[in-house]
Design a protein that fits this description.
- This protein is mainly alpha-helical.
- It has one domain.
- 90% of the residues lie in helices and 0% in strands.
- The chain contains 3 helices and no strands.
- α1 runs antiparallel to α2.
- The longest helix is centred in the first third of the chain and has 22 residues.
- Keywords: Signal.
Length: 50
């Protein structure tokens, strides 16, 4: 289950990365410097806000 969630997170990163790159390269660079746990929090926050 956790493996599935992590792969889902990775896929959402790719999608988020494409969108962010189109909008702002600086933001995605900062995003990829975050730790994995912080990335998960960001994704959960984004999904929760939708």
């Amino acid at each position: 289950m956790q493996e599935f969630f992590l792969s889902l997170v990775d896929v959402s990163f790719l999608l988020f990365g494409v969108q962010a790159t189109l909008k702002n390269n600086r933001n995605i660079a900062m995003f990829y410097r975050l730790s994995h746990l912080q990335k998960v929090r960001v994704v959960v926050f984004l999904l929760w806000g939708m």
